[in-house]
Records
---
Amino acid sequence: AVLVHGDTTTTFAAALAGFYRKIPVGHVEAGLRSGNMHLPFPEEMNRVLTDRITTWAFAPTELAKENLLCEGTQGDMILVTGNTVIDALYYTAKSTSKPLCPELTRLPQDAPFLLVTAHRRESWGKPLEDICSALTMLLDSHPELWMVIPMHRNPSVRETIRKYLEEREKVILCDPLDYPDFVWAMNASMFILSDSGGVQEEASAIKKPVLILRDVTERPEAVEKGSGVIVGVDREKIYSNVIELLENKDHFTEIENKCRFQPFGDGTASLKIADALKEYFEKDRK
């Protein structure tokens, strides 16, 4: 069997290779849908096509299962497991007490900081410039604020971020963080701004508000039952939503309280997937 995870192009390529060789494929994180084949691009296409050729659809949530059923996937092919990213998050959080990345040591102890990630293709160009412009406005209006920005390795993304933020004293621009350092940064931050899909789940799991720098999300549970707030890429909307969180404690508490029931799993997704595969192959041998 072949197991693939998520919605990258390598996910679809590996699933397609397994399909061609008639090897059963299991898709971890199956059933996520934004409803727009071009947002995010090309991830929505990758996950839709991957789900069409898999033997096992390991859906992270009940909504993901419903998406698959509506597309004609047979019910006995679907198992709701939660997401393995929550397994990794809980495991890592237990063993991470301080960061190892040298750049993060620049943060003064107990300094208030925001964690920011932005990398999506649909944000390249003006949308990313507007995001960065909003960040400069925030730094000007709240001079006590620090920002940690792990930069995607794409040169276009780095060029834009550096253009707006490289000279800012309280902005730490660094390479993508190792996962333990990223988990530390999520936990230690005041809150998060991100266009990442996984971060929406991780932030909800640790009850950390995350402002979603996208117009749509394939994880509506993060908005309905988690800590996510969709703010898009409009400069003024990003700025006003951050200010609301910085200056309105009641709003902050409201988002935290919404996360009491974790929608993306309890940290046992990997065990559920392993048990399902074990059961399948034991039956196959008989």
---
Amino acid sequence: MIHWTNLLPNPQWLIDLAMPYAMRAVFAALIFFIGRLVIRGIVRLLERMMVRANAEPTLHGFVTRVVFIVGMTLVVIASLSRLGVDTTSAAAVLGGAAIAIGLSLQNQLSSFAAGVLLILFRPLRVGEWVDIGGKAGTVAEINIFFTTLTNFGNQMIVIPNSQVWSGSIVNYDRNRWRRIDLTIGIAYDADLRKAKRILQEIVTGDPRILATPPASVALKALAESSVDFAVRFCADNANWWDLQCDTLERIKLRFDAEGIEIPFPQMAMHVRDLPEVAPPPA
């Protein structure tokens, strides 16, 4: 009579069969976990190095993400290869999937490429006041796909990087100073020389106005209803807005005190040949 234990496979045979696969799994797990620890260490080291080098947060955030993604991709491929997976076939499958994804995400990929260029060439930085295609605001964030602005009304403006890179960028804060251009009109019967002298006193009497390049006051145009002066002076970026507002206020108050009229558009109407209106009946 055959005992049922004789029908079971030899345990040693099972161990011999499973041992190579178990060792592969152990080594693959070790490669994955140790590789992840090494990649994280490299990323932290890069972060510290870029902080010491005073690199922009956007730049070192982008670099560390790229290093982490590339490193983990290599670690996963090495782990799968240790398990005995044919990584060549997997790479072919991933390549085909990448082509399909790329065709369906063309706009996003163009924004990604533009984000890389923005981070590398840095035509704008976080904290700068810029105008991008007619949308003005302070740069709040530059990531891989979008650039975020905050305007005067504290509203968030999100612009795809492809539009940022392909359009025009006006950076108001990259240079230390900016010029202020004012057009000031006076009435035709006002004293022209007196008005010019007052304007020159105003633009030379404010310490916030830069001496270089020098301020200028010049007759600009003989307009339809006013004699226009071009008033130009420069200020540091931090003083630009307040100085412009204060200068306009001082000009108005000084002209009022000196009796110089600032005209506004007027229209004279001459009515001819009015029809006679019959008197009301008695």
---
Amino acid sequence: MLTREQIAIRPVRLGAEDYAGIAALYGAYFAAHDVDRRYSAADIESFLTAPDFFPDLTQVVEEDGRIVAYSEHVPSAATGNAWGDLIVHPDYRGRGIGSALLAHADARLLERAKTYIPAHLPVIARRGATAVDAAAFRLMEREGYTYARSFYEMRIALGSSPASALPEGFHLEPFDRQKHDRALYEVHEEAFSQHWGFERDPWEEWEHYVYERPNTDPTLWLIAFDDQGIAGYSINRQMRDDDPTFAWIAALGVLPRARRRGLGEALLRGSFALFQERGCTRAGLAVDAENTTNALALYERVGMHVHRTTHSYQKMLRAAE
């Protein structure tokens, strides 16, 4: 096992070399844990150039000329929560790299919090890992993290079922960014405001993650209106260039005034039908396992199943004053 002094931790560098290196690291991690997911260098660039990116809170470990571990924190000055990843290449586990990187990253977050997170808020680090990565949970528990929440990735094999008719009082309109972007943003924030860990996204972050991600395609979106404006929506995209048969529902939301009328199910089934028209054979989405809006029951009702579980762990690094 290496000592912490022997482990070469450095800040991430914005550029093609690190984007490709981090994407390759995720690829090795996913393959080792049987996760059928892939991040491209373009995906990594999108993450690392987002408005909420903190270069000083994003570190890598280099060994043998390649990136073998990665950590990030994305703190919120509004809540004190800091979400992030920490992964180690499967070939480099058992050498103390994860422990050293986690301790380093949390110390950097505490230092940054002195000037970024108000003293009346606690500083809480939150990290997740796929449920089959038992080593990650052992590491976090050794470092004082405790279990917080679980999330499901749900999937469906798309058949030939037609889209459901919209409930009475609703209609669809094509998304027009000039007309709808701010209204859709406000509807999304309201629709998710009661979810666990909710933090209102600044407009700049919403704009980046919704419009500037690879494979963004507003022609795949469904926007439902009632007599008061946007009432529900499904923001969809084809997941990857190398697998255009897989579609992803990035966000599905219905305002409280329009719930329990079948709008969410109609948007979901309508998305499936739209995916099939584009040649997709599978679709997926992510959901809080303890979702309070009955979303999990809806997804199961339309034929989706739990494909993968992620557990989130957290640690209070600083108490509120």
---
Amino acid sequence: MCEQVRRPWSGSMPSQQVCPPLQKPPPTSTRCSTTSTLGDRMRVIGVDEAGRGPCIGPLFVGAFCLPKEDEHLLEELGATDSKRLRPAQREAMAAELRDLGARRGWGLAVQPLSPTKIDAAVEEKGLNRLEVEGFVEAIQAVWTEGVDHRLVLDACDVDAARFGRNVDAGLAAVGLISAETEAKHQADAENRVVGAASIVAKVERDAWVRSFIDESGIDVGSGYPSDPKMKRALPSLLQGQRPHEDLRWSWATTKRGWEEVHDRPAPVRTEARTTVQRRLFDPPSS
């Protein structure tokens, strides 16, 4: 298995390639399919994200890919929604997934979406568009040529059908067509492959938080706005001429904190500092 992980520690660490080690709405779903010509040669790709709500650090998109006939192995391992597992259980499960995946030729990728990219997306067209890009890039990283793929996506958009169509459009723009795409809410709790993706994404998010705390000496807890540790840490991250680079400047929590410290509106951040960087593709919104 070839595991691709991109970790922008403090927003600057380059991509790494390792070969191997390895509040949601009610559930809704959509399923789009094309005619498969390859019979049983089908791979299933599950995709989920971790870290959407925190006001600091990247959002991580995880993709997990395996042959359809291997899905039962994830059930035997107990792969499930990462939120159902304690941190130590997630770490152990991620290690098991990497080990078994290395022996069976599974694919795993974790795509980080940096705070700068998140801020640019919020200021431009919304976070959902950036998440679509992250899902497409993670799927590309585990795509296997010469076989059909069934995609199961934990939809980030309130409209699951729209999210699935947008991911399909993004994939089509780079020449990839799935045999079937299912986008649904709470897919990580209902589908083992998406559960595996949620685990590896959450483990990477947790690792980023630990690294930030170790390097900065500032304990942000989970990074969520409601976390008491994050609340105590925020003023120290807003003391400079600009908010700390790892904060999400576009979050209401950050903006309010900045105004309290500096008595003026918070600065706006885009990828190019003055304009939002052009997207690789612009999928339809409906």
